[in-house]
Amino acid sequence: MRNELLHIFRNTPFGRETLMASVYFCKETGTSLRVYIPKFRQFLMYFEHEVVTVDLDRAFLRDPGTAKQHAEEIIREGRLTPHFIEPKGFTASTLPDLPVDYRYMTSPRTISNLSAKIGLGYIGPRVRNIIRSAGFPVFIPTPVFKPWKKVVVFFGGSQNAIKALQYGIEIATVSGFPLILFTQAEGRDLRYYEDEIRQVGLFGKLEALGYDWLFFDRGELRVNLYEVPHDSLAIVGAYGHGAIREVLFGSKMEEIQTVLPNSMLIIGPNCTPVIG
To answer: Nearest 5 degrees, angle CA 94-CA 135-CA 62?
Structure first.
């Protein structure tokens, strides 16, 4: 897996903000940026357990003559070197295959619907398919670029919460930003969650790094989410079960992504952290 972030560029003001967020993410995490400027409305991603067809809204193909120039300007303004990818494989003449061996991928909340029709609390089915199938986390930035200066990991003790914590430790270490854990307790005390972290050998790293813990043993989750700093990156583990394909996150994750306006890094069920 390459230490690179995949970004699908949309040549619109909304797409500009998303690319600015990717540039910032890459600078703070020490990740190389790879940009794909689509020429077709669809592409395929061949993951280990599923092939995902991604349908793009027509704004991704807007004004192709200026797309690369606009992307280069945004990237250079962020003091990164522009790198663009061209698909080498095609399942059909207008259906390119994109590599999937990236460490991260950026996506807006929807890539198949016009952004003007989408509000907070909606994550489109194509984006959910990628999250469910990918071996990398998906970075979903705020609609308007906003730098983040803290890292908040939502930790409930599940296997995916452990993965989220691994990424949180990594990103906080590389960026130098403070690490905060957020837990909505379910009838368990703080020691229970500390023991969960000890069992996987991460508590020593936490102590060495330093952290704060927003631990709530009362109150509703949607009320307690107000305490999440506005200038933080939220790292959340998503679940993979659900009889309906669009049902992915579990009730807590759905509530978090519905209420919280922060940029989010979502760790899917097939994601395997590559730390260090």
So the answer is: 35
Sign of CA pseudo-dihedral 173, 176, 177, 179: positive
| Angle at the Cα of 204 from the Cα atoms of 200 and 208, rounded to 5 degrees | 145
Which residue ranges form the domains of the chain, and what is each CATH number? 4-140 (3.40.50.620), 150-267 (3.40.50.620)
Calpha distance 14→144 (Å, rounded): 7
Which distant-in-sequence residues (6+ apart) come within 8 Å of 223 by Cβ?
A: none
Give me the pLDDT at residue 274, please. 65
| pLDDT at position 33 | 98
Beta bridge partners, 172, equal: none
Q: Tell me: the pLDDT tens digits for 99-115? A: 999 999 998 765 444 44
Give the residue among 242, 41, 54 at the shortest CA–CA distance from 138.
Answer: 54
Each residue's pLDDT tens digit, 103-156: 999 987 654 444 444 443 456 677 888 888 899 999 999 989 999 999 999 998
Distance CA 77, CA 50 (A): 37
Distance, in Å, from the CA atom of 136 to the CA atom of 130, rounded to the nearest integer, reads 9
Instruction: Let me know if 19 is exposed, middle or buried by CB neighbors in 10 A (0-12, 13-18, 19+).
Output: buried
Rounded to whole angstroms, how far apart are CA atoms 210 and 195? 17
**Token pair 């307790």 is at which residue?**
185
What's the token pair of residue 221? 């989750």
- pLDDT at residue number 28: 98
**Is the CB of residue 61 less than 8 Å from the CB of residue 114?**
no
